[in-house]
Design goal:
CATH class: Alpha Beta
Distance between the termini: 33 Å
Order of helices and strands: HHHEHEHEHEHEHEEHEEEEE
CATH architecture: 3-Layer(aba) Sandwich
Number of strands: 12
Helix content: 25-40%
Shape: globular
Structural class: alpha/beta
CATH topology: Rossmann fold
Strand order of the largest sheet: 3-2-1-4-5-12-8
Strand content: 15-25%
CATH superfamily: Vaccinia Virus protein VP39
Largest sheet: 7 strands, mixed
């Protein structure tokens, strides 16, 4: 496959990283001033995440490191990895400013097991909005399996493939399927000048290549690479306004459909353990 998608997507994230770090939505100042502060994403995950104290963990596609540092604050020994040099730079600055002992590595996620110690992690963590940038979920699962030690676990909360397949808001209020649900060889090409957080920055890099991955494809990839699924939960909310015009904001920072939210899963949490 052409590496064009990497160049386009990396340029997009390199440009957005400083804007995200400056946005109140990422709340970096709270990390600086409050040693107990956790990101909204990790706080949502706590009931399913369980005890992570003492675990050696790696956060794949960590962006500017807020979730990575939150996991470190829960007692895990964390490494963050991202392909965007600008994102890694902001993550390192945040770690230094907040006193977090976290390593951040710049590398493509598919190269993670080549640049990090293979088979040495108790926890592989992936957060919201990561898999959609990858053309092959099977290759991602193979990377996860290589990173985990026997008995180590995968934890991922991600946007639901049903959500990624939906179209924009319509005047009649209907929710429609407009985009691929399953992984295809061809990417969906987007031209979007904005971003998902509050910012006044106008971006120059607006073209991205993205892929959806159906639930069956994700679960099969995890199973095919020697992991046992220990949990799968679907949620009717997401930590950003995923369908503007259809949604309402809940306490705790999550958003869901305002009208009959049980119709559409917005996110899911998947847990698996590498078979010894």
């Amino acid at each position: 496959m052409s590496e064009e998608y990497l160049q386009l997507n990396r340029a997009t994230w390199d440009e957005r990283a400083p804007a995200h770090a400056a946005s109140p939505d990422y709340a970096l100042e709270r990390f600086h001033t409050d040693p107990g502060f956790l990101s909204d994403v990790v706080r949502f995950d706590l009931p399913r995440l369980g005890e992570v104290g003492g675990l050696r963990g790696v956060h794949l596609q960590c962006h500017i490191g807020t979730d990575t540092i939150s996991l470190a604050r829960l007692g895990a020994r964390m490494t963050g990895l991202d392909f965007s040099g600008a994102s890694v730079e902001r993550a390192r600055e945040l770690a230094a400013a907040s006193g977090a002992d976290v390593d951040f590595v710049e590398a493509d996620v598919y190269d993670a097991a080549d640049v990090l110690p293979e088979g040495s992690f108790d926890l592989v963590y992936t957060g919201i909005g990561a898999l959609c940038w990858l053309p092959s979920v099977d290759r991602w699962a193979a990377t996860v399996a290589r990173l985990l030690k026997p008995g180590g676990r995968l934890f991922i909360r991600e946007g639901h493939p049903v959500l990624w397949s939906l179209g924009d808001a319509r005047p009649d209020g209907l929710v429609t399927v407009e985009h691929p649900y399953v992984e295809r060889a061809e990417p969906t090409v987007w031209q979007e000048g904005g971003t998902y957080v509050e910012t006044d920055v106008e971006f120059e890099h607006v073209t991205t290549h993205e892929w959806n991955h159906g639930v069956g494809q994700i679960l099969t990839a995890v199973l095919d690479h020697g992991m046992t699924i220990t949990g799968f939960a679907e949620h009717d909310s997401a930590p950003w306004d995923a369908l503007p015009g259809y949604t309402e904001k809940l306490d705790g920072g999550e958003w869901r459909l305002a009208d009959r939210p049980w119709r559409v899963p917005f996110t899911y949490t998947l847990q698996a353990v590498r078979t010894p």
